[in-house]
Recover the amino acids of this structure.
């Protein structure tokens, strides 16, 4: 069973950084560390535990999720940074996009492209890349079926969805991504979000107001089970 270590960044966006661990091997998800104070707990933990990071997974290219990538690479060495190519342009836009929120320096780092349906072998498990454009053009989720974990970035949150008013955003695309790509996953899949607390696919089917009619138990003669699955379909 994988262990999850959570590092909360205290910038204006309070983004989540996750370290997924199996023994001394780890995968780092969305390192948005913006300063030494945020980065120090992560660096100290890595050094104290003697951990080896296999990869950095980027769910999307907004600066609050990639701000700390270069800093992490300086610490970790030659680690692949997986990211969808449609969001690579956002690395170069980070300085301008961050300006209204306190700013950030120009960012630059190499990435390894991922595509929809690609399977990454990490931590002795298979991780499926799920392309979910809408919050950004290149937003992706990382799904580990063996552990029933989904890292959703800013695509899906507990009780809401990602904003779509930034560069490359599209509300229609986001809803289609969530409904077509995520709502069919097992109901007990844990959704680990880029901001806020975790949830499950079943909870979002039944309680997320943006995803109706998943939450409607009876509609037009259709019966649904507790996980929001059509019983007589």
């Amino acid at each position: 069973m994988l262990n999850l270590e959570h590092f909360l960044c205290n910038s204006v966006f309070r983004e989540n950084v996750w370290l997924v661990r199996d023994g001394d091997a780890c995968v780092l998800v969305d390192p948005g560390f913006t300063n030494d104070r945020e980065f120090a707990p992560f660096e100290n933990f890595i050094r104290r535990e003697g951990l080896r990071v296999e990869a950095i997974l980027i769910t999307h290219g907004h600066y609050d999720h990639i701000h700390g990538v270069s800093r992490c690479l300086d610490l970790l060495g030659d680690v692949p940074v997986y990211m969808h190519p449609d969001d690579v342009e956002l690395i170069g836009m980070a300085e301008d996009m961050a300006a209204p929120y306190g700013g950030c320096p120009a960012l630059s780092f190499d990435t390894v492209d991922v595509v929809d349906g690609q399977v990454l072998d990490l931590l002795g498990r298979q991780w499926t890349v799920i392309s979910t454009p809408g919050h950004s053009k290149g937003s992706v989720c990382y799904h580990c079926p063996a552990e029933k974990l989904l890292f959703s970035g800013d695509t899906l949150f507990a009780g809401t969805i990602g904003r779509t008013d930034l560069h490359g955003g599209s509300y229609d695309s986001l809803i289609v991504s969530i409904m077509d790509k995520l709502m069919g996953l097992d109901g007990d899949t844990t959704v680990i979000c880029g901001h806020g607390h975790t949830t499950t696919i079943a909870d979002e089917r039944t309680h997320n107001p943006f995803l109706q009619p998943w939450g409607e138990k009876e509609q037009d003669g259709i019966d649904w089970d507790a996980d929001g699955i059509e019983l007589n379909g």
